[in-house]
Amino acid sequence: MQWIVPLFDPDLGVEEEEALIGVIRSKWLTMGDRTSSFEKAFAEFTSVPVAIACNSATAALHMALAALEIGPGDEVVVPSMTFVATANAVRYCGATPVFADIESLDQWNVTAASIERVVSSRTRAIIVVHYAGYPCDMHEIMALSGRLGIPVVEDVAHAPGASIDGKSLGAWGDLGCFSFFSNKNMTTAEGGMVTTRRPELADRLRWLRSHGMTTLTLDRHKGHAFGYDVVALGYNYRMSELNAALGLVQLARVSERNAKRAMVVGEYRSRLAEIPGILVPFATHRGEPAFHIMPVLLPEGVDRNAVMSAMRDAGIQTSIHYRPVDTFTAYVEAGLGPSDNVPLSHVVGERVVTLPLFPRMSDDQIDLVCEALRRAVSAAQPGA
Fold first, then answer.
1. Are residues 191 and 317 in the same domain?
2. Which residue among 18, 136, 205, 209 has the highest number of C-beta atoms inside a 10 angstrom radius?
């Protein structure tokens, strides 16, 4: 379908084209010097000692938990209001995800209090998600982590460049996991990154990324090594040079694009305030967000499918971020849901609609979206 206003619109141009051509002309396509440069630049961007590139945020999450030696019999606290990969990574390790609720119908992030309510003697890690690019209260969450002795993994898929008190998200927890999927604030097409401030985890992460091997193909190509040992059960989670080349270009402009996203969100908020019953979350927020997506909460009783169908008919793409993970068939059948611990997540999951948001979005496009939403909500009211 040709959308008048798409949900997202990747900002790609000549610089990205030239970066990819440079890789092709180099004839070195697999993980190499560009990947190393991307890792170094990203570590500097987030002010962490180590950044390790991989092929997705899902791989990043799995590597992070595996590096912490999470395994069968362990529990990991995760939000239910997140993409399913956050919880799937826990299950990849043979551990059990335990779901924590959001704070309120305005604040859609987990809190130290909601995490502590579901912590047990088997809890071995906590994953927090900075939903929509809005920072969790990392001061309180890290204080809880220190008190309980439980490490924290930050899922920063929505929030590259976001910070609290000048400290980047991904630098607060023991590990940070980033996504560079095509709809993210910066993209490598497919790709991810793990950051850590704990040096002892760095070698484990590198082994996990590439089959547990002690040297890489590039090392042997350059004559720096002739063979390798395998010292751990690893995976094939490497990033290619093509992805890294895109990442280097995109990283240079992510802060500028986040600022443009902030302006779009500000325009949205002023217009959406005029639509009766629409709630825009994070009316107040801490730190400096990344403004990744534009979720709204429909009025109670409004037919969401009717609203989204009307928006589609108007040429405007919408989505749902998210259906709570504990309600998916695979989780219910595994005995992991529905969870009684996340009632607010269930309320949001039934009423959330995600509106288009991208840095180059114009005022006219915002007007089209908001007017279409106003008409759609009016028509979908009970008894309308």
1. no
2. 136
